[in-house]
Here is the input.
Amino acid sequence: MNRKYRKTIIAGNWKMNKTLSETKAFADEIKPQLGKHKWCEVVLCVPFVNIPAAVRMFKDTRVAIGAENVHFENSGAFTGEVTAEMLKEVGVKYVIIGHSERREYYGETDFTVNKKIKAALAAGLHPIVCVGESLEQRELGVTAELINYQVKCALAGLDATQMRKVVIAYEPLWAIGTGKTATAEQANEVCEIIRSIIRREFGARVARAVTIQYGGSMNAKNAAELLAQPDVDGGLIGGAALKVPDFLQIIAAANQE
Here is the structure.
């Protein structure tokens, strides 16, 4: 982390987990223990149906509520989808875009990711944009080339002002839901590659200010080591974000001196 230039963000991605009652129980348990977490911003990206309640439950805290997906159109015949304006109106601040599960199961592409980013920014939301390679791609030695392609496609057409509002999450596909985790050095290496791409496209000042998270099975045990790396500015947390004690430990790791 480098707090001198950029914000540390710990974001929980609940995926398709927690009912409304379970969301309330989570809020009741975590709120008294949150403290001020002065060095990082905490985000909870929850299922669509839980968003309005989560916004109310955390309104007296510094926890921001995010969504797990968004459509790129402003309206239309897209059954089951929601727009960026809809999310903004109910109090959402962040939205995850291009998560590997969306790419794998629902046909999300680098080009739809780009359109969703632009829609989110137009509505005043902060996109958390996911990029990452498969195990096969890493073993072939094409990680850098793939990340370069994904990042450039995702950010095409953005200007420097817009880029400052974007968060990038490096999520190696081989480390999501598998229990495997990139070493701290591996995570930092790719986050550094991402920053170098942003530097080339938007300039050094913008690249220095952009938050780049690690999103591959960060947990209570490895968070401190990962977050100690200079180019890892936070985490996009999956399973550990569903458990209050684990999530609190990760937040504490982000507040390390």
